[in-house]
Amino acid sequence: MCRSNRVFKVVCVWGLFCALIIFPALDIMAADLGKDIKGSKDIPGLPRYEGSVISGYRFSKFDESNIPTGPWKGKKGWESSIKKAGRRTRIIYLAPPDRSSTEVILNYKNALKELGYETLFECSGYSECGQDIEAFYNKNADGKQIKDSQLQEYAFSPYSVKDPKVFTGKATIKGKESYVFIFTAYQDNYGVSKAGKRVAVFLEETRLEKMEEKMVTLKAESLHRMIAEKGKAAIYGIYFDTNKAVIKPESQPQLEEMAKFLSQNPELQVYIVGHTDSQGTFQYNLDLSQKRAESVISMLSSQLGIATSRLTAKGVACLAPVTSNSTEEGRAKNRRVEMVLK
Question: Quick one: what percent of the chain has pLDDT higher than 90?
């Protein structure tokens, strides 16, 4: 792993250089930097710096983003930040070679001010933004990095970044909250040299949207089949408010199907297991998952007539994910209740 002191930086950069000698195809397969990459487009309503081209692009209909409101603190990440979920777009622009990071960020700030964005955080240089701030991208600390090709993956290559600038802001656009995060810096690209020795711009917008609920209520028959085949059933039709254990009213259909299954199989005893995603501390999630499992048992017992002697609550936090926690879609699948045969 690369160390923070200068000796190790030299070693790490040399190692990366050697890797690129071994794999020279990276440069040969570089995109045409005279035009935007295929399938990319500007964020509606947000302008680009004149003469820039899009070298990286990723759009998610619904995802979660970490918006910095304080400087970068190395392994600890951002000193302060806010998490927002909705329509998320990440773009890397390559500015014309003769432009400075200062000129580019000032143009963005002026344009965003005209659009009604208020400043959440801004900084200039390592002394204000934090040492090695480019690590937010190349170490994928907050899921910012785009890895569709070496052109995107090696943007803001380690130890090549100079004059970093950050701006984050918030506005209401067409009735919806919009959060932007802009990082500009002079940089090299160790994967595609033609994309280096110029200012690059990382632009991310998160526009708040409600996630579409795609999970359907599991009927008693489906619960019976899943328990018989796998000894457990993952249940997504029980809803809680964020960071709370109070069950929402729209969970009633699923609770009734669970009670129906248990009534049809009076000999069965089951664990009701709460699962969370990996956001927050482990102990917090462990407590939350336990409380949610207990809430389900309380509803099944007090309202639907299932004996508590047949039900045992267990919370396991994020210890048994069904998929990656790196996206909001993945985290939504990991947040669930399971019925497990004793």
Answer: 73
